[in-house]
């Protein structure tokens, strides 16, 4: 799957002028509210038309203003999960789910009704009406409805934003399974770092209608980290569960990470979000410390900021950013190429 | 039952129901189309279009009837065309009465339907489009079902208007027993006739009962339709 996006659109005072490419997997459009993320997905879906530009999906032109092509949304086969579910109130959950099955070519159809219903855990809701559903249930039905229309690409516009923490926690695993089991390309809009870190492979950062950065999620977030809280997003494998200490051990190329018990299957790939200020650096063997997580790292770059020093590190192939004081930098002699140990407090880790 | 009303009264009741049903049924497709245009259309002359549709609501019914006679009478441009091409004559026929009733009830029908179409969340239609539904499919599967309460309300209002229509009908198709004499025209004739008061009262009661029945029925249907769709 290849999506190429290049469009300009003016909405009052706001101007969107963005260009990016997505090569399958989960691509996150990340940025603050009002930065133009929803405008972008609406343009991809065909719900609005760009003033100028060209959007293609796998070589097929969806929009090209230069030659006057504008494929209507119904013929794009692009699924859309809206922030506010938008279930049809006059239809049962079952009819909502099968709505998209009425349209489109039989040939390109994929996805088994029973399998998708089971994946989303909505089997018990089929006879109900959308109005009787909770927010989380509605959103899962909306996801199922979009999937059952056999889309080539799925757009998700902050599908979790309207939900409380508990509901979000309920749906996130479904989205992960969607990514891992359905292999469906997803364009995922969010302004929540934790969601993007957990779900996305690629991230496109949107600021004030423009693409500020784009690339693999770890790299982009590290670049942006110069003025943010994020220290690192590490991908690790669940290696063991320690029942006695109540911790889960994660395998990472740079060492073993201990985090509060996760209860996930062994071998599962997880992402770990670490704040820059929870990372300490040590040169040489740190000796006896209460800090359990010690990752081998190498200094890539050192840059002086207003109040402190940002140290960019390479941790087993993944980027990490630590913040230290000027004094600490001097004492440790932090400079590019130096081997250090990154110390991370176990409690500062969770699967965010 | 035969003792309750005279043959002429039965005729008027039957004719009234027939005229009202045909008027409502025939104008419904046009009513929905005009309501769609009014609720969603953005085109030059929209205000004028709206005014023309609402005209029968504000004009004296006699004027409407006379305009119908001018247009649809045997010598009128439309009436002559229909007569020559299809052999259809409306003037002084019950079909003409139905046309008069349809025209008089049309603004009420369009208004009710347009209001309910305006109330539909268009984002639901967008959702349907992303699921592969083309414009016609979106209209049939989302817009129309969600506008159903308004459509029912429009049907009842125009049906009631058709049952009560007098001025335009009597002007356009006169007051011919068995052909164009509906309940209101019959009541009018009866009160002109010495000793007709009793019969007039009986027809009045019939009129009230039919109208009440239509209202109750529409309320019941509307409640069923809205029960599942409104919070």
From TrEMBL, chain A:
Protein name per its UniProtKB record: Molybdate transport system ATP-binding protein
Stored SMART domains: AAA
Domain ABC transporter, residue spans: 2-233
PANTHER family (UniProt xref): ABC TRANSPORTER I FAMILY MEMBER 10
Record family assignment: Belongs to the ABC transporter superfamily.
GO MF term set: ABC-type transporter activity; ATP binding; ATP hydrolysis activity; molybdate ion transmembrane transporter activity
Any one Gene Ontology cellular component term annotated for this protein: membrane
SUPFAM superfamilies found in the cross-reference section: MOP-like, P-loop containing nucleoside triphosphate hydrolases
Record's keyword terms, sorted: ATP-binding, Cell inner membrane, Cell membrane, Membrane, Molybdenum, Nucleotide-binding, Translocase, Transport
UniProtKB/TrEMBL annotation, chain B:
Mode of membrane association: Multi-pass membrane protein
Alphabetic keyword roster: Cell inner membrane, Cell membrane, Membrane, Molybdenum, Transmembrane, Transmembrane helix, Transport
Pfam families associated with the record: BPD_transp_1 (PF00528)
CDD domains: TM_PBP2
InterPro entries: MetI-like, MetI-like_sf, ModB_ABC
GO molecular function, one term: molybdate ion transmembrane transporter activity
Cellular component, GO annotation: plasma membrane
Domain ABC transmembrane type-1, first and last residues per copy: 13-218
Superkingdom, natural source: Bacteria
TM regions (residue ranges): 12-39, 51-72, 92-115, 136-160, 199-222
This protein's record includes keyword ATP-binding: no
Localization per record: Cell inner membrane; Cell membrane
PROSITE patterns, per database record: ABC_TM1
Main location group: membrane
Family: Belongs to the binding-protein-dependent transport system permease family. CysTW subfamily.
Function per UniProt: Part of the binding-protein-dependent transport system for molybdenum; probably responsible for the translocation of the substrate across the membrane.
Protein name, UniProt field: Molybdenum transport system permease
């Amino acid at each position: 799957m290849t999506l190429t996006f290049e469009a300009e659109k003016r909405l009052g005072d706001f101007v969107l002028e963005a260009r990016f490419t997505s090569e399958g997997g989960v691509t996150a459009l990340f940025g603050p509210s009002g930065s133009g993320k929803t405008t972008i997905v609406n343009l991809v879906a065909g719900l609005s038309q760009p003033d100028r530009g060209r959007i293609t999906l796998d070589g097929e032109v969806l929009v090209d203003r230069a030659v006057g092509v504008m494929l209507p949304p119904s013929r794009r086969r692009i699924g859309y999960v809206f922030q506010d579910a938008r279930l049809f109130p006059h239809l049962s959950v079952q009819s909502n789910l099968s709505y998209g099955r009425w349209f489109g070519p039989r040939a390109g159809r994929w996805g088994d009704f029973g399998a998708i219903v089971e994946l989303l855990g909505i089997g018990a809701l089929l006879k109900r009406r959308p109005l009787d559903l909770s927010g989380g249930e509605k959103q899962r039905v909306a996801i199922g409805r979009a999937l059952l229309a056999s889309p080539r690409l799925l757009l998700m516009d902050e599908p979790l934003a309207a939900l409380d923490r508990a509901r979000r926690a309920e749906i996130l695993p479904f989205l992960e399974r969607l990514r891992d089991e359905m292999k469906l390309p997803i364009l995922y809009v969010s302004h929540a770092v934790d969601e993007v870190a957990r779900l996305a492979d690629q991230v496109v950062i949107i600021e004030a209608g423009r693409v500020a950065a784009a690339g693999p999620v770890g790299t982009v977030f590290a670049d942006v980290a110069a003025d943010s809280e994020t220290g690192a997003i590490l991908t690790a494998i669940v290696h063991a569960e320690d029942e006695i200490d109540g911790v889960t051990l994660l395998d990472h190329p740079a060492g073993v990470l201990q985090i509060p018990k996760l209860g996930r299957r062994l071998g599962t790939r997880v992402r770990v979000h670490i704040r820059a200020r929870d990372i300490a650096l040590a040169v040489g063997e740190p000796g006896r410390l209460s800090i359990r997580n010690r990752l081998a790292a190498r200094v890539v770059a050192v840059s002086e900021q207003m109040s402190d020093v940002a140290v960019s590190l390479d941790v087993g192939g993944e980027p990490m950013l630590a913040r230290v004081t000027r004094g600490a930098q001097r004492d440790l002699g932090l400079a590019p190429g130096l081997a250090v140990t990154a110390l991370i407090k176990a409690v500062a880790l969770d699967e965010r | 039952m035969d003792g309750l009303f005279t043959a002429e009264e039965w005729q008027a009741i039957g004719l009234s129901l027939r005229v009202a049903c045909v008027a409502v049924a025939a104008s419904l497709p046009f009513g929905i189309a005009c309501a769609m245009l009014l609720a969603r259309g953005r085109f030059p002359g929209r205000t004028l279009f709206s005014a023309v549709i609402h005209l029968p609501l504000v004009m004296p019914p006699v004027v409407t009837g006379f305009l119908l006679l001018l247009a649809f009478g045997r010598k009128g441009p439309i009436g002559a065309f229909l007569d020559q091409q299809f052999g259809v004559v409306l003037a002084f026929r019950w079909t003409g009465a139905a046309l008069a009733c349809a025209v008089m009830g049309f603004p009420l029908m369009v208004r009710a339907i347009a209001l309910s179409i305006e109330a539909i969340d268009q984002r639901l239609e967008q959702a349907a489009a992303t699921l592969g539904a083309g414009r016609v499919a979106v209209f049939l599967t989302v817009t129309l079902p969600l506008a159903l309460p308004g459509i029912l309300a429009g049907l009842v209002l125009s049906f009631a208007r058709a049952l009560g229509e007098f001025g335009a009908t009597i002007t356009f198709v006169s007051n011919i027993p068995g052909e164009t004499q509906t309940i209101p025209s019959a009541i009018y004739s009866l009160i002109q006739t010495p000793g007709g008061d009793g019969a007039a009262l009986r027809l009045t009661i019939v009129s009230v009962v039919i109208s009440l029945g239509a209202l109750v029925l529409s309320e019941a249907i509307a409640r069923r339709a809205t029960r599942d769709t409104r919070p």
